[in-house]
Amino acid sequence: MYETDKDGYLVNLDDWSRETAEWLAEQESLQLSDAHWEIIHCLRDYFQTYELSPAMRPLVKYITATLGPEKGRSIYLMQLFPGSTAKLAAKIAGLPRPTNCL
């Protein structure tokens, strides 16, 4: 068990690990594949660089620059992280909720 806030985000970002991500994904009924992990690692790199969780547009732009145009498409990301893509991906990556996501 990991301590989360009312929206399911980690209270202590240092608690994040691969096991934590698996647990967070399970809470969202999501099974992580290599494609998910690729995006999760990019998100964590983004957070280390900019000290914030990206909303959808900056996320798409960063993934395009990092992994290429095929993976940096909204549709691709929404298939991996359905619903509110940026929020769900940030949650599983152990990051705070993106500030400009509803």
From TrEMBL:
It is an enzyme of class 2 (transferase). SUPFAM superfamilies: DsrC, the gamma subunit of dissimilatory sulfite reductase. InterPro entries: DsrC-like_C, DsrC-like_dom_sf, DsrC-like_N, DsrC/TusE. It is found in: Cytoplasm. Its main location: cytoplasm. Keywords: Cytoplasm, Transferase. The keyword Transmembrane helix does not apply. Its EC number is 2.8.1.-. Pfam families: DsrC. NCBIfam families: dsrC_tusE_dsvC. Part of a sulfur-relay system. Belongs to the dsrC/tusE family. This is Sulfurtransferase.
